[in-house]
Every structure is written in C-alpha cells, then in structure tokens.
Amino acid sequence: MNDIGYFSLLLAFMAAAYGGVTSVVGARARNPQMIASGAHGVLATFGLLTLSSIVLIYHLYTGNFQVEYVASYTSSTLPEFYRVTAMWAGQKGSLLLWVWTLALFALVVHMTNRDRNQTLIPYVHAVMMSVVLFFIALLIFMADPFELLPFVPAEGRGLNPVLQMPLMIIHPPILYQGYVGTVVPFAFAIAALITGELGDTWIRTIRRWTLYAWFFLGFGLMLGGRWAYVELGWGGYWAWDPVENAALMPWLTITAFLHSVMIQEKKGMLKIWNFILIILTFGLVYFGTFLTRSGVVSSVHSFTTSGIGPMFMGFVIVSMVLSFGLLISRRRALKARSELDSFVSRESSFLLNNLALVGVCFAILWGTIFPVLSEAVSGEKITVSAPYFNQINVPLGIFLLFLTGAGPLFAWRKTSVQSLKRHFTVPVACFLAVGAILFAVGIRHVYALLSFSMCAFVVGAIGLEFYRGTRARRSTNAESWPAAFVRLIMSYKRRYGGYIVHIAIVLLFVGFTGSAFNREENFAVREGESFQIKNYTLDFDSLTETNMGEYVSYAGLLRLSVDGEPVVMMAPEKRLYPIQDQVTSEVSIWSTLNEDLYVVLAELNETLDVATFKVYINPLVNWVWIGTALLMLGTIILFLPDRFGRKATGRERREGKGEPRSPVPGTQDVIA
How many CA atoms lie within 13 A of 60 on its CB side? Predict the structure, then answer.
C-alpha cells in the first residue's frame, strides 16, 4: 500500500512534465492532437495525486505507525476524525494536500475552458504543471510523506493539542484554497504575455477565480484569528505574527487588483499595473510559504525547520525574474488607451486605493523581514512588534476605509461640483454627527474617533445608494420596500454585492477599533473568594482535577454575575498532555454584541489552593466575526450567475448580455 502512494507520486511527476511540455509544443506547432494529449497529462496528474492522497489518509486512519508521518502526528488515543485531518498538521501531508488542490484546479480550468480560450489554455496548463512539478519534486526528494521508519513504534506522538479543535480542521484547507487559487490568475496572466493576447479576455476569464482566491484568503485569515482567540489564551486574535502577515500580504495585493482591473475594463488603463499585481500576489504567496516552512522566523503557526525553505526561496526568485522579464518584453504592447482626466474621479479613487493597499503591504513586508535582515547584517535579530505595524497601518487603514465609501460616489472621468454635493452631503453629515456624539460621550482616542466616524461615513454613503436604488425600483415595479431591496441586489449583483462586501469591511473595522479600549487584569484568588472587573463579579467556586486519558484537566469553576445578577458558570482550564509534554489553555468567554469577558486560568500554585486568573475585557470584538459572516454573504452574491435572480429582456437574451444598467446614475461595478 505504501509503495502505491510513493509510485503514484513518481508517475504524477512524469505526467505533469508530459502535460506541460506537450501542451507548449502542441501550441507552438498548432497541433490540436498534441494539445489534447497534454490536457490528458493534466487529468492523469490529478488522478495519480488523488491516489497518493488516499493512501496517506488510509495510513493515518488505520494508524500505521511505521510510516514516519503517521507516527509523528497521530496516536492510538487520537479520535479517528483528527487522525484523518492530521494530513495537513505537518509539513509533508500539507504539501501533498497543496499539490492535490492545485491539480484539482488545473482539472477544473481544463473542464471549464474546453470550448474557449484555446490560444491561452495550453500555456495555462504549462504554467500550472510547472508549479505542480515543483511541489511533487519536494515530496519525492525532500519531504516524502511515505517515508518508513526502520521499526514500528508502539505509539505515535499524537497531534499537537492546539490543533485538536474544529476550527483547525477547516482553517488550513480553506486557506490553501486561497493560496492555490492565486495560481490560476497567474497562469492566465503569463499565458497572455506569452501569446500576446493582451486584451481583456484573460481578465474576464479569471474574474471568478480571482474572487475565489480573494475570498478564501480572507476567510482563512479570519478563521485563523478566531482559532488564536479561543485557543491560545492571550486575549487577542491578531498579533502581526510573521505567518499571519505572510497570508495577509497577498490578500492586500489581490484586493488592489480587483479594484484596479475595473479601470482597465472601463478605460483601458493600468494594464501593466494589473499584470504586476497578479505576479506580486503569486510571488507573495510562495514567499509567505518560504517564511512558514523555512524556520527563518519564529511563529506559533510555522512548521519545523527543514531544508525545503531555500527551495521555496529559489522558486520565488526564478518565477519573479521570468515573469517580470516577460512583462518587460511586452511593455510596449500594454500602453494605456487613455489617461487620467481628473483627480476627482472614480479612476483616481481606485488608483489611490491601490497605492494605499500596496503601501500597507510593503510596510508589513518590511516589518516581517526586518528581523531576518538585521540578523544577517549585524548578527543581532531586532524584533519588530505590534506598535510598528499599528503606527503605519492604522492611518492607512482609515484612509482605505474612506475610499471604501467615497470611491463609488465619484463619477468616471470627472465628477462635477453638483454631483459631489448630491452624493457626499449625507455621508459627511453622518461622519460629523457620529464624531460629535462620540466626542461628547468622552472618547478622546484620536484614531478610534476617526475610525468610528469614518465607518458612519461609509454606511451613510452605501445606505444612500441602497435607498436610491430601492426607491427607483419601487417606482417602476410597484414592489414593497423589502421585495424591491432584495430584487435590487439580485438584479445588480456586481454592484450591490460589492456594497455588501464594503459594509462587511465597515463591521470589521468596528471590531478592530474596539481593541483600542481593551482592558486586562490578573487576579490571584483562593476557593470561595471573588473578584470584580468593571460590572462583572466572578466567584471562585472550586478547582477540579480530571484525568481524561489523553490529558489531565485542571478547571477553575467561576460563578459570573453581571450587575449583581447571576448569569452563568465559567470554567477556564489548563490541560496537561503527557505524551507531548505540553500544557494548553482552554479559555472561557462570555459574549455580548458590546464586548467579551475573556477569562484564562493563567497559573496554579503547587498545592492547587491558589489560582491566578487573567481577565480581558474586549469591546466590540464580536463585530469582527459578524463582519466575516457578512463578507461571506456578499462574496456569495458576487459569485452567483449573472442571470440568477432576474428575468432577462428579449434584447439581453439575443445579445447574450449579463447585468443591465443600474437603476440609478453611477457605475455598474463595485468589485470586479
């Protein structure tokens, strides 16, 4: 069985090489049979990698401890479900999952482009198979998931305790969807540069793929934040950790692309810039993978140090040199059809949006790699902590929040003074009113005041757009307000789905801003004693010790009262895992829309009669998770087929058009 998995990898390597080379040779020779044969190589690669993955999952499920990977990440006491998901708990298994996902995407690209993009597809196959080859080579030569031990251990080392929770079952595969999804836009961009097909075809083809990668990168980041919040016991969800940053950077550049590509569609501008953004996104994904898997940075998220880190760095350098070299060779063919007409225009707002997003990305990149560079130059690792990132990115974030609301209010080419007054009066009034109210109630934190006020500005701007659109629909269709509102969204999905995403960003900012008012205190108490923080009173009822087999639990039972009224029992825990010789914290959280009471059993003395509890008050944190849910909804609406939710007119059916023009003046698109 083990040999089947390994030889499937070898055959997949050969199939991927055949598929990539044959596709290019067939395209150059204009030989349809060779191109089809290359596509068969792509299909065979997916099938063989599927077989390898099934073999590894079988070993994990059955507990074959002679396989080194199985012995390292499972044990006989580990629940069966966690045994299977241990596939992405370590380096080797996660690489196999990554390349299998990439092969699956190559298959989907082939199936969805059988009757179109025939000039581009052979080169798309070649690019994707090149990346597949790189990963399979790593698996065969440096990270063999089917490596056997010279003996059969009596027991495995088990899964890292902090990974034994539902969020970590789904977080890595979801994040990989985003990481791997960036390869498809990159492959189409390189194919367009190779073939000289530099129009809008490749952009239209990758629209949903780009949204797919953007969505799963962002969703994966938020799931990781939620995991850190409920599992690590430090009271937060984002620490500007190097591996967190590595996932955030490509999300920023792909967000910039989703906005700037609209300028190319509307005005034929920023063609070179859009290629740069796609190439940078691809490069940042694999640079982040280098950081995660090389051991050059310290992170709770990173894998153990291994020899594959330099291979990833080499892959990034080679791919970036080749990609930018190809782009430079095509620069004359990518001249813009028009120029910027006015600073007060939709084009200018999108351009500023791009500059701010890339500026945030560069600041994060510099802060992430600076400790590595300082150690290489001076021999001393100088750590860059959260204050650096906040000092730069908070003002840039507020500026981006402003553009989120203001951008859609500007007209293309040039915005008249009358239009500015008509569209900006309500949002500016919301900004000033909320700012004045918050100042009156005592908020003096400058950035928090600006952020909350800017959130009101964006809600005012987008709410006005929804109101005008719904009103226009009611006047022409005699519908109720709720029906007109829903049908407006479903009829103009690109525009109003984008607005929903923008509202989700506002909710995220509300949650982010709440962290400016976080509070933290420590309390050392004996059984029967109580302590108070804000309007919360916690009575330490008892400390329980329970042997759960895989771990020993120490739980502090606390009776929570809010404003003197008993509410619930809280039970923060310390868990000792003997096999891994590891201690973890299980936090207890009392949540409301206003704030979280977050309690950690921080410390026990040797006689277990005194416990130290660390208590956090985290205002507005739940709006981060609500914003994430709304972000999912908005993106799902953007993914719906163009004709879903509306009845096309006869003319639209004849012309094959998608969405009609908006019922109110303005642009059709918010997110490409």
Answer: 29
To 5 degrees, how large is the angle CA 556–CA 560–CA 562? 160
Q: Rounded CA gap, 365 and 128, in Å?
A: 26
pLDDT digits (tens, 9 = 90+) for 177-208: 999 999 999 999 999 999 999 888 899 899 99
Q: Is the Cα torsion angle 619, 622, 628, 630 positive or negative in sign?
A: negative
In order of 15, 90, 134, 145, 146, the CA distances from 3 in angstroms are 18, 21, 21, 11, 8
Quote the pTM value.
Answer: 0.91
Give the number of other CB atoms < 10 A from CB of residue 480: 9
159 Rama sector, left if φ>0, alpha if ψ -120 to 50, beta otherwise? beta
Residue 269: which pLDDT band, with cuts at 50, 70 and 90? confident
Q: Are 246 and 288 in contact (CB under 8 A)?
A: yes
Q: What angle do the packed helices 308-329 and 121-141 form, to 10 degrees?
A: 160
Half-sphere exposure of 3 (CA within 13 A, CB side): 0
Contact (Cβ atoms closer than 8 angstroms) between residue 242 and residue 368:
yes
Q: Are residues 340 and 348 in contact, defined by beta-carbon separation less than 8 angstroms?
A: yes
Two structure tokens written together for 600: 């950690």
Task: List beta partners, residue 524.
Answer: 612
- pLDDT for res 417: 82
Sign of the dihedral defined by the CA atoms of residues 387, 389, 390, 391, in that order = positive
CB 574 within 8 A of CB 604: yes
Looking at residue 307, the DSSP 8-state letter turns out to be T
For residue 350, with 0-12 CB atoms within 10 Å meaning exposed, 13-18 middle and 19 or more buried, which class applies? buried
